[in-house]
Specification:
alpha/beta, Transcription Regulator spoIIAA, six-stranded mixed sheet, two-stranded antiparallel sheet, globular
Length: 129
C-alpha cells in the first residue's frame, strides 16, 4: 500500500484575498520503490522530497515525473544531492517520464546525463532490476 502525502489543499479566501492551493504532491510507495512527483515543484517541495529520499531503505529508487509540470533550481539541487547520497549508499536512482519542460532544465544545466532516464516507471523498474 502506497503511503500518500498530498500537499494539495483546497483554495481558500482570507483577509488577503484568494489563496491558491499548494501546487505539488509527493507520494511514495515501498513496493515497487517509486516516488511520484506531481505539479509544480519548487523550493516549497524540497524538504518533503529530501525526507522521502533520505528515508528510502531499498536498493533502487524511481522518481516518477510523468505528472510534473515544473521544477526549479532548488529541486534540481535536491536531485543532484540525492544522486550522490544514494550512490554512496549503493542505491540506484532513475528518473521516469520526464516531461519536456523538466527535460529542458536538465539539458540547459547539462545535468541530464548524470541520471539514468526512462520513458516511464515500468521501463525504469526493468532497468533497475
Amino acid at each position: 500500500m502506497a503511503e500518500h502525502h498530498d500537499r494539495r489543499e483546497p483554495a481558500s479566501i482570507d483577509e488577503r484575498g484568494l489563496r491558491p492551493p499548494a501546487a505539488y504532491t509527493i507520494r511514495a510507495g515501498s513496493d515497487p520503490a517509486v516516488v511520484v512527483l506531481e505539479g509544480e515543484l519548487d523550493i516549497a517541495a524540497t524538504a518533503e522530497l529530501r525526507r522521502r529520499i533520505d528515508e528510502f531503505q531499498g536498493s533502487a529508487l524511481v522518481l516518477d515525473f510523468a505528472r510534473t509540470t515544473f521544477i526549479d533550481s532548488a529541486v534540481l539541487k535536491e536531485l543532484l544531492r540525492a544522486r550522490v547520497e544514494l550512490a554512496e549508499r549503493g542505491v540506484r536512482l532513475a528518473l521516469a517520464g520526464v516531461p519536456a519542460q523538466v527535460r529542458r532544465l536538465l539539458d540547459l544545466t547539462r545535468t541530464s546525463e548524470l541520471f539514468e532516464d526512462a520513458s516511464d516507471v515500468d521501463e525504469a523498474l526493468r532497468r533497475l532490476s
